[in-house]
């Protein structure tokens, strides 16, 4: 608790909301709870976020940036790798992060899955961020492509079973990683041998 | 309405349940409603289906068999096609059927999407049916594969965005079919040109 009324930033509200969500769950956390913990009036919160939904979106965006985009950016910038191997490592990192948080940070993952269904703009931005980085890797690599960003998006779509939260229930399967590698090999080599 | 008490079959219960679901919606249809329409006691229904859920699964299985598997079987058996073209037509038919029913038979599609989340056995059987037929087409075709059923399953997974009901909200996009063709071309040819 603390008196933030003078200097309260969006960031502080988001950090506090995330704490409240972990403690009480998404359904039971209200804007009033967040205001109470921050020792401000709920009007102060509403000045920054117009509704509980907007607050949840803010937390999800922050969570995606920190937990998914930040480590992915490190992989994207890693110049020790190149070509298909770099792209595969990038995608594998995306998949491993999603599977990890689906297991280990269930409350936040469930919220992210819910927001995916509802906050089209936020998810559009998130997917663009990832496919842009994939496109960068393709451009720098020896993968021949006239349209790197289109190829990036196509690979993203073809692997969606392994990173889209709607498929989280399939990630518990012991063969899921082997199935990703099968898809990856097919994307790399194609199934038509007579070219 | 009619007195079916003597000769009531599972099939008749399922047909009546489907009618009731269309009329009242999934949430508002009870086993008692179905019994009332059939003019039997609800005990008679419970003799065939142990719960409302089992009844819904029965209707979904019937719906999938009639609306999806039946036309797909016709494509699978069509000897006028062969090779990748046959496989693509099969998959395109699967996708077009799913998109069609998501638009035109919303109540039943929503139920099928719900059952997909919950009735693992039913969906496992449905997916096996489809990947078995894809495997058959691969075996008969000039597609070289040492494990046709594994290749079939891998292609099924790589195209899941276009036929899994969790992605139905993405099917409204005007570019969805073009995106499927991009994925298909990638699966056929692969992205590595130097082989």
Automatic annotation (TrEMBL), chains A, B:
Gene3D superfamilies from the UniProt entry: Tetracycline Repressor, domain 2
Ligase in keyword set: no
Residue ranges flagged as DNA-binding region: 30-49
Keywords, alphabetical: DNA-binding
Pfam families (alphabetical): TetR_C_27 (PF17935), TetR_N (PF00440)
MF terms in GO: DNA binding
The keyword Transmembrane helix is annotated on this UniProt entry: no
All copies of domain HTH tetR-type, residue ranges: 7-67
InterPro entries: DNA-bd_HTH_TetR-type_CS, Homeodomain-like_sf, HTH-type_Tx_Regulator, HTH_TetR, TetR_C_27
Official protein name in the record: Transcriptional regulator, TetR family
Source organism (scientific name): Propionispira arboris
Lineage of source species: Bacteria, Bacillati, Bacillota, Negativicutes, Selenomonadales
């Amino acid at each position: 608790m603390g008196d933030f009324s003078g200097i309260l930033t969006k960031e502080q509200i988001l950090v506090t909301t995330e704490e409240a969500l972990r403690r009480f769950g998404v359904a039971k956390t209200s804007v009033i709870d967040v205001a109470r913990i921050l020792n401000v009036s709920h009007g102060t919160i509403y000045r920054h976020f117009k509704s509980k939904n907007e607050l949840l979106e803010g937390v999800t965006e922050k969570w995606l940036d920190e937990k998914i985009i930040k480590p992915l950016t490190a992989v994207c910038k890693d110049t020790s790798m190149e070509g298909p191997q770099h792209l595969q490592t990038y995608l594998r990192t995306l998949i491993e992060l999603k599977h990890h948080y689906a297991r280990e940070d269930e409350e936040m993952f469930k919220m992210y899955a819910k927001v995916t269904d509802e906050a089209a703009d936020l998810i559009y931005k998130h997917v663009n961020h990832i496919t842009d980085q994939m496109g960068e890797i393709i451009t720098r690599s020896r993968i021949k492509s006239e349209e790197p960003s289109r190829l990036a998006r196509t690979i993203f779509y073809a692997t969606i079973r392994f990173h889209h939260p709607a498929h989280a229930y399939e990630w518990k399967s012991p063969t899921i990683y082997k199935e990703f590698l099968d898809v990856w090999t097919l994307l790399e080599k194609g199934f038509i041998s007579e070219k």
